[in-house]
Amino acid sequence: MTTATLAQLQRRYTLPYLTLSELRAEHFPHIRTDRHLRRLIDTGELQITLQRLHASKRSPLVVTLEELARYLDAQLQRANAA
């Protein structure tokens, strides 16, 4: 999947993913803690899929740029439909 949104994200970030903290700071600054953001994602209020880089529980939670682009495009479509 290559969209204009994904291309912009790939130009902005050097890694193919953002950590939960980076996601919150860059795209959800109104959410004050990572714990609250994680709760919103876990309950389905935010339709974003988090992953771990490997099977360890100590591995950081990340969101891929593809997933973030999908979420942002979906939000834009919802806003345009309203």
Structure write-up:
The mean pLDDT is 95. The chain is globular, with a radius of gyration of 13 Å. By secondary structure, the chain is mainly α. Helix 1 packs across helix 4. It has helices at residues 4-12, 20-27, 34-42, 65-81; strands spanning 17-19, 51-52, 61-64. It contains four helices and three strands, in the order H-E-H-H-E-E-H. Strands 1-3-2 form a three-stranded antiparallel sheet. It is 52% helix and 11% strand. The two termini are 26 Å apart.
> How far do the termini sit from each other?
26 Å
How many helices does DSSP assign?
Answer: 4
Largest sheet: 3 strands, antiparallel
Strand content: 5-15%
| Strand order in the sheet with the most strands | 1-3-2
**What is the global morphology?**
globular
Helix percent reads 40-55%
Number of strand segments: 3
Mean pLDDT: 95
Q: Please give the radius of gyration in angstroms.
A: 13 Å
Query: In sequence order, what are the helices and strands, one letter per element?
Result: HEHHEEH
Q: In terms of structural class, how would the helical and strand content be classed?
A: mainly alpha
Low-confidence stretches: none
Pfam family, one: PyocinActivator
InterPro entries: Tscrpt_reg_PrtN (IPR020518)
Protein name: Pyocin activator protein PrtN
